[in-house]
Structures are given as C-alpha cells and as structure tokens.
Amino acid sequence: MIDNGFPLTTEPSILKEMIAPPNLVSKMLSVVTGNASNVSDTLPSGAGSCVPWRPTDPKYSSNEVYVDLVEEMDAIVNRDGELVKCEIYGEVQMNSQLTGFPDLTLSFANPSILEDMRFHPCVRYRPWESHQVLSFVPPDGEFKLMSYRVKKLKNTPVYVKPQITSDSGTCRISVLVGIRSDPGKTIESITLSFQLPHCVSSADLSSNHGTVTILSNKTCTWTIGRIPKDKTPCLSGTLALEPGLERLHVFPTFKLGFKIMGIALSGLRIEKLDLQTIPPRLYKGFRAQTRAGEFDVRL
Amino acid sequence: MAPPAASQRYPSPSQPSGKSEVSDLKTQLRQLAGSRAPGVDDSKRDLYKKVISYMTIGIDVSSVFGEMVMCSATSDIVLKKMCYLYVGNYAKGNPDLSLLTINFLQRDCKDEDPMIRGLALRSLCSLRVPNLVEYLVGPLGSGLKDNNSYVRTIAVTGVLKLYHISPSTCIDADFPATLKSLMLHDSDAQVVANCLSALQEIWSLEASHSEEACREKESLLSKPVIYYFLNRIKEFNEWAQCLILELAVKYVPSDSNDIFDIMNLLEDRLQHANGAVVLATVKVFLQLTLSMTDVHQQVYERIKSPLLTLVSSGSPEQSYAILSHLHLLVVRAPFIFAADYKHFYCQYNEPSYVKKLKLEMLTAVANESNTYEIVTELCEYAANVDIAIARESIRAVGKIALQQYDVNAIVDRLLQFLEMEKDYVTAETLVLVKDLLRKYPQWSHDCISVVGGISSKNIQEPKAKAALIWMLGEYAQDMSDAPYVLENLIENWEEEHSAEVRLHLLTAAMKCFFKRAPETQKALGTALAAGIADFHQDVHDRALFYYRVLQYDVHVAERVVSPPKQAVSVFADTQSSEIKDRVFDEFNSLSVIYQKPSYMFTDKEHRGPFEFSDEVGNISITPEASSDIVPAQQYEANDKDLLLGIDEKDENKGVSNNNGSAYTAPSLESSSNITSQMQELAISGPATSATTPQSFGFDDLFGLGLSTAPAPTPSPPLLKLNARAALDPGAFQQKWRQLPISLTQECSVNPQGIAALTVPQSLIKHMQSHSIHCIASGGQSPNFKFFFFAQKESEPSNYLTECIINTSSAKAQIKVKADEQSTCQAFTTVFETALSKFVSLTFDFVSLCY
C-alpha cells in the first residue's frame, strides 16, 4: 500500500483489511449498492500498534490454528537416470484464527536438515538461534511463516525412463513412468509434458494408461493421474521427421508434475505447537504436501 | 450559460467533447455550493467524481476551480479527499485562486480527526505556490508537534516539500533542527524514517553552500546516530530498513569492534523475507569488511546461501537481478560458489535471459575440481531446442577451455560438437577451435584431423568460415587437401559476400603458398587478381599490398605475412578493473544489472553530487566545471580514436594476425618539442618574477612581490594549455591513483587576498580562465581542497593537481601528478602564476574597498 508515494505497509493481512479481496458477497453488494470499490473507510487497527502485522483485538468464538508444510521438489535427471541436481524448497504456511494476543512456539523434530531459512517479520530471531524454535505473535488469518531449502536429497519418488531411437526419417519413442521409492502416501496427478522438436512433422503417440494430448504448438502432455498397481504406465509411438532429415538432433526435455498429500518429502516434521496462554476451545491442525516444482528429465 | 433544463440531467459520458460538460459541471457545482439540504453531499460526490475522472483522462477542468473551492466546506471525508486531490493538481496553474483554498485547508489542519488534519496538511504542502509559503509554516510547526503519528509523518514530508518550494523559509523556521530531534526521539518508526529521508535530502542539497549543513550531514553518519537506527531497525518497514542500511553503508567504522558490532546487529536481516533488505544488508557487510581480507572471505561464505535462495525462489526477473549480483561477486571471488555450481544449472522452463546469465556464472565458477561436471552440463545445452542458448553454451565451453582447466577433455568435447552435424553448432565450434589453437598450439594435431573433415560448403556464417579458412592457411602443411579447398573457395570469390571472409582467404592463400608453393601458385594468382578487382577497399588494399610485397621479395613477404607465432597467453578482457570496482561500489543498484557504473547510463543533470570514494568524504564533484566543454572535446577525441583504431587495425592486418607485435613507436617529434620548450622556459624564466622554474626563494619572492608592488604584467604562460580540456571524473580518479607524485610544493599566499576566498567557486572560475579546470572541490573555511586538471594544447598529456589552501595561515600546498614528468615543473610554474593572479586581483579589490 503506497500512501501518497510513500510506502505504508506490505503486510498482506493488513492489506486485506484495507482492500477486501473480491468475493461473492462483495460482488453482490457492489451490484446492489453500485459501489464498486472494495477499499474500506477506516485505517486498520493494527497499523499503529507495536505488532503492525496483527489487528489489535480480533475475537473468535472457536480458536483455530492450522500449520501447512508445502514443499516443492526441483530436480534435473540426466539421460542415464542419474540425479544431476535435486533440492526442495519449502514453506511453512499458517492460518491462525486466535482471539487476543497469542504467543506461539513452533518446534521441529529435525530442524538441522534445514538450510537458509527466511522468516516473516513476526518471528523472533534469538530463540531460533539458540534452540531452533520459532517463537512469534502471528498475524491474523493466512500468512507465510517461513521458507527454507533442503539440499542433498538422494532420491525422487517417481522415475521417468524415456527412450528415443531414430532411423531413416522416423523416430520411435517410448517413455516409462513408475514409482522409484514409495513415499508411503499415494502420488497423485502425475503429468508429463514435453515440447516436440521443430523438425517433427507429425506424431502418433498412445499410452496404456492415462490420456495423451498434443496441442498445435507441439506441446505434448500425458496425464497419468495415479500409477496403477498392476502395470507400469507407458507412452509409445512414432514421430515422423520433416523430409530430408535422417535422425533427430534435438531432444526434448520432459517436465514431470506430481503431488503427494500428507507428507513432506524433505523429511521435515513438526514436533509441537505451543500457546503461551491456552484459549478455550482451541483446535490445532497440521498438514503436509509435496509437489513437483521444476522437475526436468533430459533425454 | 447552459439552460437550466440541461443542468438537471447529468451529461452523458459518451459525449467526449468535454467543453460543454465542464461548463455544465460548473453550473451544477455553483447551485450546490450554498445548499445545506439533506442529501446534497451525495450529489456533490457524484459531481466531484466526474471532475476527478475528467482530470485523470486529461481534460482541463481548471475552470471550475472556484466552484470546487466553494463546495469544499463539508464534513464528508470522501468529498474532502477528492477536493484535496483536485486542488493539489491545479493550484500551481492558478496561484491567485489557490489563495482561496488556504483558508479552509488551514481550518482543516486544526480538525479533531487526525485523518483530516493529515490530509489537509498534505494538500496544503502540495499546493506548490511560492507566494503562499508563509501560510505553510504555522500548520507545519503544529503538525510536527501533533500527538498523532500519522499527522507527524505527513508533516515531516511536508517540511521536505516546503524546502523544495522555498529553501530559505524552511531553514529560517529551523525545521531541520526540529526534524532532527523528532528523528532521534519519536516513538513511531515511520515518523523517524521520514525524518531521515527528509533530512538526508535537505542537508545534501544545502551542503554545497552551507558549512553547517555539511556538518549536519556528516553527523548523520556518526556512530551514535547509526547505532540508534540499527538498534531500532526491526521496528521499521522494509523500505525504511533499506534506507537505514543504505545509510549504514556510508558509515566509516572506527575500529574492528565497531565492524563486528554492526554485523552482529544486522545478522538476522539476512534472513528477512524481503529480497531488497537482504541485498542491502549484503552490501553493508561487503563494504564494512573491505579492509579486512579474512573477514571479507567469511562474509562471502555467510551471504552465499541467502543469495542462492533468492535466485531459486521467486520470479525470473528477481532471479535475473540476483544473478547479476552474484556474477559481480563471483568475478571478485571465484572460489565462493565453486561448490555450489549446481545452482546455476539451467532449468528447461527458465526464460533465456536467466539461462544466459546462468551460463556466464557456470563459466565464472569453473575451476579444477568442477570443470568436468560443468562442461558435461554445458554439453547438454548444446543439444537444446533453443538455438541461442545452444550457441551460448558452446561459447561457454570454449571460455572454460581458455581458462586452462582440464583442456584435454574439453577439446574432445568440442570435437564431438563438430560431429553433431548441426550447422550452428559447427559454426560456433569452429570459431572456438580457432581461438583454442591460438592459445594451445600443441593441440593442433587432434583438431586439424577433425577440422579437415568438415566440408566448407556446410558452413554459411562468415565468422565460422573465416575461422576455417584461417586454420586452412595456418596448418596447410598438416592438411593434405588445404590448397585444393582454398582453390575451390577462391573460385567462388564472387559469391562470397562477407569482406571478412575474403580478407582471410587472401591471407590464407599467401600462407599456404609459402608452405606448399607449387600447389597453391595458381590459386594465389587468382585470389590476388580477384582481390585487386574487389570493390571493398580493405580487400583491394590488402591484395595490392601482398602483390607488391611478393614482387619485392618473396622471403620478405613470408616474414611479413607468416612469421613464427607465439601462443596467446591471455585474451583481452573487455571491462577494465576500474569499472568493475566502480560497479561493486554501486552494489544493489541498476549499475550491477547494466554491468556499467551509473555515470555511464544516467544523464548529467540526474547524476547529483557524488563523491570520490578514495578521498575524504566532503569533496564533491562539481560537474559544471567541465560539463559545458566536454561534448565537443569528446567528439574530437572519439574521432581521433576512431582514426587511430582503423590505422592500427590495418597495420595489424597488414602483418597478418601477428599477435606478438605490439605497436609502440616512440614519437621523436614530441620529445624534441618538449626539450625546445624547456629551453625556452629556461631562457625566459628570469624575465618574469613569477615563472621562475627554480623554487628556491620562490616563497619570499611571491609573498614580497605581492604585498609591496602591484602584480607583474601577466605574460602568456610558456606551456600552452588546452583551454577546452576535458577529463571525466572516473578517468581523473584512475590517473590520480596510478601516477606518482611528481612535485610537492608549499607556498604562502597573501593573507589579505586569500581572505576573499570564502566559497570555492570564485577560485574555480579564475583558474578556468587560465585553462586549468577544476574537477572537484570541497572543504570549508579555513581549509579548502581543490582538484584541478589541465591538458597540454598540442597533445593529450594531462596534469593533475591537488591544491590545499589554508586561508588562516595563508599557505597553499600543491601536489602535481603528470603524464609527462619532464614538463611538470613548467606546469607548476604556470599553475602558481595563475594562483598568484587570483590572489592579486582580489587583493586589489580589497584595497579599493578600503
């Protein structure tokens, strides 16, 4: 929020209070009243307090706090199936709906695996430095508490084995996708997409599981979903090269997408979340989720 | 006047003319102005909205100014805000009418709602009408003392606005002092931050003509102030934190404890979620530890992982900006990221500008331990779909090869590229193989066998073709069919469009001829004939030159065209280290992204006073001294450079890629000139009292001569100086560092005369009239410091002078550095003469006054 050219605040929860994000109710209201603006008339109450990220005195009938671990796996796999690079970028996202002025302490079972954390301004630095615990007064509503990286991962949950052989103007392509190391939860929404090289004039691809689509810009997407128990999903087919070309010189890079609910692949675990003063009817919830970030498989 | 009926309905927005609508609005506003009826605020709001929307789309609605002001007597905050916006926009154009608004704005400044007080104060300060400033002082003063922090925040920026309208009013009301006490005592972080930015601006603008402001500006950088800010830094928002960190960069720590204290205070800023804060902190760390080498290395280790995270998280634009900074760091300290090279592997989806920078990073971090992996990775990109990146990655492989690590494996890889049979890969690789052979001739055998297999028909790009032809000529004895390949190429002379290729063909044919004369003779004849008939001047000239050299003596021709070569050890670096240092000083700014210092891409008027980094802080550049004369001079110089460049190029081409030959002919003429000048000096020296080259008794003579007799008649200085000399500050600084002090001299000056020297400008003007230009000046009474430069009339030989004048002891200390040591004494004489004239002139003036 810029106030006459000067920055006033960057805190998302305060901004939301100033300018309500569009929702169904506000749309209805604006249609009925003809008032198109979502900007509120008053300055948020937290703007002048010593914890500017929190409104002064929110009240909730039921006190709820949710912690989500959201991780993204970035990896590069070379044509021999070796892991060239693999790391996880993770965020701790919270949604706190707590009455009054709560003081939270969040601790991890294995904080030593984390590298280069960055914190929301509400996190006190000293407790983290001495005991590796996060102590903070949370903003109200959803916010990103911290982000981190985890390096030196040895394994990916899914493997992709592409093969291309080309001979006298046509290419045979086959891609196998399977589970390499079972994370203990189901791997969902697996997709594989790649760009067909420019010199491919036509492609005939089919799979024994899931659907294959080829768009006009030569982007090919194979939607697998979950991997079935009885067979290994396989994409196969032929690519016809433009006349005059014998072999394929340019190889596509496969981009893998997947999602695993209920587990953080980095192995990071939340130990406990404590409140200094426990309000009545407190509900604490934890979730974890891992998805593929930039996951490239080269051929 | 519109008929009343029309005023009842609102003008339809589909009518774009605006003229009649504005007059419509005017009448409607006038009707509403006096009305106190219920609901009148709502209709006013509608009208105001229309006025504002016209204003924003560019229709001139200044004609309703009076009506708007009349309607503004309301308690509705929305109406007020719109009215303030309107008034702020048009007040400057209607200074007389804006007087009307003063009254209600002043009244609003005393409103009980702090929001309205703040808004009114802001609008009052935004009027920007010089003759209304008297009305500003009162409200601003009470605004600064307001008990609501929002009002104080606005009042502080209001002071800055007032300063820009009328500096004297602002200073007379003693606002800077009030701001200072607010800055040090206010509880609200935003007020403090605004005070800091306002004071920085005011004092740095004041500093040029007020000693006190200069001192105040310095005091912002004093230890207590810096520590005060750093201790409170967590209370501020991100922007203010960046502001404080920028301030901390300029702080000169007193000792190493100081440095460690600051770093401990700021350590956690590196884990801030905001990238700008992280970068600003990194800058503080780097600048603080510049003098402590071992700590500086530790700092690199510490800042590494935050920066790497910033690269991998966030948008590609952010990655690009951070990667540019990493590139700057890695050039200064290549080891830091050597173990983290995998972070610079390109992902498939990244935009090509990020990929390109990552390739540069990979080249920069390559060392003995990781070369193999990096080159393997780069080879992957060579087969990439994106042709531009494939080319870049091949070039990167070549650059790594030239860095001398593990050349063996890389040469193999490069040769594999040639077998990929993709025209652009082959083209890039050929250029690289050529460069490699120039550096490592021992690899010629392996390379030639592969290169020999490439058909010249498959290569279209001029650069690649030229590289291939160069290799054919250079290694004609190792390639059995070299003469025939060349012959083929020469037969197709007409189809060759690039002059570069034709030039290389000529040279290659010559070289081949010296090695295998019988086979090449015919081809050479054809080439020379075709070359002489060529329409391109360079090709024509070179063919003619070869022809005549051959005619004169074949052995001489061989010595000229194909002498034994030395391997090139280092290829020229494009950017000077001085520029790199300059860019490093401007860390965390656009300079890093453009990879050049800010003075190269900002206009002169926007540059502002910047400081010599290696001199004491208070000396600022005075751009006006040279700005008006620079352009013409520079063009001239450029032209000369161009001519010279071409000459040299031709010369080099003439000797045909002879890399060993440096071109440094001593110019006899200029040295004889100097000696004759020196003689002249020696002869005419005694004639004028002030130009005595010997400095014995000079002080006496100087002092006495001035206080007793009127100054001697000015004789033209014997050393002719260029009246329009030009030198940019960067070059000056570099020269000043490089050159040794040729002469140090102290002389006393007439105390009465020098007493007139209260501002540096007067002396600068005076010296300029003597063709001695000031590049920087500073200091305050009684100590002044000047940096002067001058150029010889006939040649670009510079004289740099540091002159410290103490007005209380009436002494001037002069340090001279010169390109040419021989004429240094002569220049000093000229300089002192000029200085003495300044003194005498003012002395005359002073005596007249008595």
UniProtKB/TrEMBL annotation, chain A:
Residues 62-298 form the MHD domain. CDD domains: AP-3_Mu3_Cterm. Keywords: Membrane, Protein transport, Transport. Its main location: membrane. One of its GO terms (cellular component) is clathrin adaptor complex. Signal peptide: none annotated. InterPro entries: Adaptor_comp_med_subunit (IPR050431), AP2_Mu_C_sf (IPR036168), Clathrin_mu_CS (IPR018240), MHD (IPR028565). It is found in: Endomembrane system. Transmembrane segments: none annotated. GO terms for biological process: intracellular protein transport; vesicle-mediated transport. PANTHER family: AP COMPLEX SUBUNIT MU. This is Clathrin-associated protein, putative.
Automatic annotation (TrEMBL), chain B:
GO terms for molecular function: clathrin binding. Adaptor protein complexes are heterotetramers composed of two large adaptins (beta-type subunit and alpha-type or delta-type or epsilon-type or gamma-type subunit), a medium adaptin (mu-type subunit) and a small adaptin (sigma-type subunit). Keywords: Membrane, Protein transport, Transport. This is Beta-adaptin-like protein. Residues 9-25, 654-671 have a biased composition (Polar residues). It comes from Arabidopsis thaliana (Mouse-ear cress). GO terms for cellular component: clathrin adaptor complex; endomembrane system. Subunit of clathrin-associated adaptor protein complex that plays a role in protein sorting in the late-Golgi/trans-Golgi network (TGN) and/or endosomes. The AP complexes mediate both the recruitment of clathrin to membranes and the recognition of sorting signals within the cytosolic tails of transmembrane cargo molecules.
